[in-house]
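Take one record.
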Amino acid sequence: MTLLLLPPEGGQHAPPASGGVHRSWYESFFIVADEATDPQDNYILLILFVLGEWTDWDLSVFQTELVHLTPVNFYTMSQSTEKVTVSYGLEYNKISAFLSDSAMYTCKAFSDVLQRMLPNAVHVACKTHILSLVSDIWHMQFSDVDSLVPSFKKAFEHCPSCVWYMESIISQSGESHATVVLPPEPVLTRWYS
């Protein structure tokens, strides 16, 4: 996969690729859109154009400019995607897929606006974000486990006989060791979707 910076239609420079890449050479494009926050906590939209077919092994991925979103809703998402698509001169009929997260406003942007604009495109929503939200809910239901597991770990860390017992088991197994190293403290993370 090749990642290139694609200038808008009529831009000053050509994309840096061997022999040059022209948008009209490709039969289909995918649009990949995801929102995030920048270091100043402003919402930004990153749009990538993937040139080629679903079956191609070496896809060319073009990064567009970042779009600042204020506010973040289906209207600004669809409007920004449309502006970027127009500014890069892509033919709507050649866009075969719109890939995004499964946030409600992103799904609504596709179903209410972009689907009419992109007649040959399907919406492919990332289900990983949903699994992350489900795991957060699951995690909240078992808050006692969050205190139980560290308690066992601290008891093991501060009990020399437990460490000695574990070292003896490791030495009996024939594996070499300098010291028994415990895993690091778990760090809770969250995907912002």
Summary: Strands lie at 2-5, 29-37, 43-51, 60-63, 67-68, 95-101, 122-126. Helices lie at 74-87, 104-117, 128-141, 143-157, 160-172.
